[in-house]
């Protein structure tokens, strides 16, 4: 049985049987956006959204690693990645094999892909299993749980595990008693909400589960992620603030005489090694397109208006080899402090991170401010004694040659995702309304002839194609132009753009053979 249910809990789900919970009114709203694609056929539109939700719970099979030109060259990066990957092995008939390999990326010269080898990719996973096979090949004899010891992590940690991460102590909610370092354990993720099963308060999220609870007392819903080896004891997990708890197994195991992977999905490489620190960034392929499409050149002045966590900003710094000025905005001071450390690690010396709301950053030369250029404003700014950030009130119109606008969005394209945080359609609508607030200053700050990229990590057309139409309708100076990279698909039909305009934007759909996250990119030139 792939789905193990007991009246009094726990509810053990396989990743196959688990469905990402989405409110029906939001699902219907998204389905309506796909109707024109299927000539008004509601069944086909519904199936398409269903496929998106099915893909949402698993990560893309390819890990894209973007080179940081400021700290490494491509051959050095490949050598360092292989140095990390050689530790990831499995044994078949006494032959030791590597799990992962490095391959060129088809679209970008500064990107390499890491994929599982063909044997791993063609091997059955534990995707349809709600518990691991017993070591003796027999069914579990332990009530409710598998024979192996069990760890239950929170939803956020579970998503990270599906992306290839190991389990760290802060992410563990519950554990069996008597767990010791070196034990092989079954790893589950607590599910905050699931429409398929009746749930009690224990499954309401990590806040309703006392951290450190015995797994035998857990009565919520959890999804099986795979097998791992304990790196510390149970008491150490709940007795320390940081550290590695479980190293997930990426190799093959015997399942009733059949060989399967030790995970519920194709294993991904753990590339958070210090060996690679500063030399590369693991970045989703569509997100890499944003920096590439910007067409940034050395000695230009560039702004990323919603920069955190800084991946796109650091990409542009790499492209221009630190020869220019980049201002990285975010209104959250805490996020900006974190970004500052990230940029230092990346050697992105041309980037100045500032804690500033980009919807309120436009200075008027008619008021109390003497007009200055970006370089002069940055040079004259005072520095906070508390965190070392520059104190900047804003910038003047037409100050930037290039602007990235990637506003906060509904994030319905992210993968893997085990829960959706909003519950009502009006919450989804707020994201599109909020995005419009960033546009006036983005247009005003951009120089004539300058380039602006607009991007989101959502599939919602209100935040994508309709935002492009909003910009074109309200700002005649902004011209939509094609993106010169042949990846992704054209925009959706019937949501405000002409066929010509749809062909200029790039929409990424997780159901497409490219197997990416859901994403959207548009490019404008200010006339």
UniProtKB/TrEMBL annotation:
Keyword Transferase: yes
GO biological process terms held by the UniProt record: RNA methylation
Active site location: 457 (nucleophile)
Keyword Transmembrane: no
Pfam families per the UniProt record, alphabetical: Methyltr_RsmB-F, PUA
Protein name per UniProt: SAM-dependent MTase RsmB/NOP-type domain-containing protein
Recorded superkingdom: Eukaryota
Family matches, as InterPro entries: MeTrfase_RsmB-F_NOP2_cat, MeTrfase_RsmB-F_NOP2_dom, PUA, PUA-like_sf, PUA_sf, RCMT, SAM-dependent_MTases_sf
Ranges for domain SAM-dependent MTase RsmB/NOP-type: 213-527
Residues involved in S-adenosyl-L-methionine binding: 306-312, 330, 357, 406
Family membership noted in the UniProt record: Belongs to the class I-like SAM-binding methyltransferase superfamily. RsmB/NOP family.
Gene Ontology terms for molecular function: RNA binding; RNA methyltransferase activity
Keywords: Methyltransferase, RNA-binding, S-adenosyl-L-methionine, Transferase
